[in-house]
Amino acid sequence: MSNENSSGTRRFYGWTIVVSLWIIYFLNVGFPMYGGQTVNTFMADEMGFKRTILGLAFSLFNLFQGLPGPLIGYTIQKKGARFSIALGSILILVSAILMGYVVKSQWLFLLTFGVIAGVGVGFGTVVPVQTTVTQWFDRKRSRAMAITLTASGFGGFVAAPLLTKVLSGTGKWNNCWLVVAGAALVALLIDLILIKNKPADIGQIPDGSSDVAESMAKPGKKASKYIPYSTKDDWTVKEALTNSRCWLTLAAAIGLYIPYMMLISHGIACLGDHGIPASAAAFSISLVTATSIVGRLLGGELCNRMPARFVWAGSLVVLLMGSIFLMTATGTVGMVLYAVCTGIGFGASFVCMPVVFSSYYGAKIYSSLFGTLFPIITICSSISPTLAGYLFDASGSYTSGFIMIIAFNVVGIIASLLNTPPKKQ
């Protein structure tokens, strides 16, 4: 099949990369994470594991996605994102087989799902996927990033119901882990066949550079009113880490994840305390997932029309409104407003974060820089639900927890507004 268009020039391969990454992200996040939560519940009940073990497994899973961040970044720098995705997919595949046919004890359950699967998702999703997008796109980076990152939202919709259907149809949770293993195998094959680390690997250039050349070649073509910022400097990781804008970006990220993780983990319980029926409260999580997809697409488009830091600040304001609506929700309207604001606020911010990091410090060091900071984000987001639960147990109310996340939210908004493009010394 020819890769040339009618004019004889080679088609830009970047959008094939986006589709491929979307499928990989969908498979490597949706099935082990969202699907795994569903299967683990039945698996733990059958094996007599306490709920503490079930919760600890998921906490470890979240932690081990981010803790190896520096190693993931180093691997991508040395071997490429394609290698990292392949390694992650293999680890997910192995962990799924172990979960289905080997795990019989609590410690092996924690090791296999919490550590091996967690590390697999870390190597096979966020950092390498975002790194590949930053390598292939410049001016259209935010749009490409937004499209790619919607995959995890769709994964939440598809994987859990599908695995529940497999479980109810066969009566065996082992078969569910075979589906997870199959999904990881498909992700591995797509990665090996279709993913290219950067445009230069096949003699192409990022689409942004191509767009600039094309517009210069056609004087009559109307210039874009806004061109997204992209650094022209060659930053090193050390230089970026000593730059104040890097830490403002991290503060904005923490101002996103600490509130979001509490809103998601305690949202149903909080709505129940307000007298909202359990079925309606549970629906709010599905609504958050759905609206987060809208938020990602919206955030990507807005970043093409105005500075990403303003989009990020606005998105955090919307997330803040989600906290306020959850605090005051007494009926269906309040519940829906909480879910919609939380989903859109998180989704748009989720796109802004890699766009800001990559445009400020360059695609070249993105994997190493974000990989270095990823453990901090992961630890903060993992502590948030536990701390909110502790504050509730101590006071009998979520008021202290809300004060905590609103404070972090406001810090994130201020950090975003102050986060002008850095100047290399």
How would you explain this protein's 3D organization?
The protein is an all-alpha fold. It contains 16 helices and no strands. About 2% of the residues have low confidence.
Topology, element by element:
Layout: H1 14-47, H2 51-66, H3 69-79, H4 81-101, H5 106-124, H6 126-136, H7 141-170, H8 173-194, H9 207-217, H10 237-241, H11 244-273, H12 278-303, H13 308-328, H14 332-361, H15 366-395, H16 399-418
Characteristic terms for this protein:
mainly alpha, 425 residues, 16 helices, globular, 79% helix
Outline of the structure:
By secondary structure, the protein is mostly helical. The protein has helices spanning 14-47, 51-66, 69-79, 81-101, 106-124, 126-136, 141-170, 173-194, 207-217, 237-241, 244-273, 278-303, 308-328, 332-361, 366-395, 399-418.
